[in-house]
Write a structure and sequence with these properties.
Blueprint: H1 4-15, H2 30-81, H3 89-94, E1 103-105, E2 116-121, E3 125-133, E4 136-143, E5 150-154
Parallel strand pairs: 1-2
Antiparallel strand pairs: 2-3, 3-4, 4-5
């Protein structure tokens, strides 16, 4: 009859757990490294795209800021006079918008870039355009009796073109 040690040893041999049994082959972790490499590569590409497009966001923000500064002055003229006629390019340029950093040009003269606003003004309508970059222009239009401005975008950067603004947001 076999003793307990012999029975346990036979059982371990049967299930492969004996010390003299061949070791299991080591499992590869290649899949882990492939997934980790793909995640790191995608993260690097995403970071490059974020930093590459950051100047565009700053340019857009500056163009919208220039329009808001001109809008504030046009609204103050409307509050004082009841009309936008005194908020034309000549008057706004003389007002020294944004501490003189903002140049204002007439309705048929195109904005040459950031820091320059093309303005149209008549008794009931005021419109402005700023070029964010070549062929990319932001518009803002105010109408007497309407509290919210109208917005638009286009390729022609003149105050007269900004009269076509019809959207409630950019």
């Amino acid at each position: 009859m076999r003793d307990d040690d012999e029975i346990i040893e036979a059982y371990e041999m049967e299930i492969g757990g004996a010390s003299n049994a061949p070791a299991e082959p080591r499992r590869s972790n290649r899949g882990f490294w492939l997934v980790l490499g793909a995640i790191l590569a995608a993260s690097a590409i995403l970071m490059v795209e974020i930093f590459a497009n950051r100047p565009i966001a700053e340019t857009i923000g500056r163009a919208q800021h220039d329009l808001r500064v001109a809008e504030a002055e046009a609204r103050s003229v409307l509050d004082e006079t009841g009309t936008f006629e005194a908020a034309d390019a000549e008057a706004l340029d003389a007002a020294g918008l944004d501490d003189g950093a903002l140049n204002v040009v007439g309705p048929d003269e195109a904005s040459s870039g950031l820091g320059e606003v093309s303005v149209y003004a008549d008794a009931t309508t005021w419109a402005a355009a700023v070029s964010a970059r070549p062929n990319a222009c932001f518009y803002l239009k105010l109408v007497v009796g309407r509290d919210d401005p109208l917005y638009g975008v286009g390729t022609e950067c003149t105050g007269r073109e900004a009269l076509d603004s019809r959207d409630p947001r950019w």
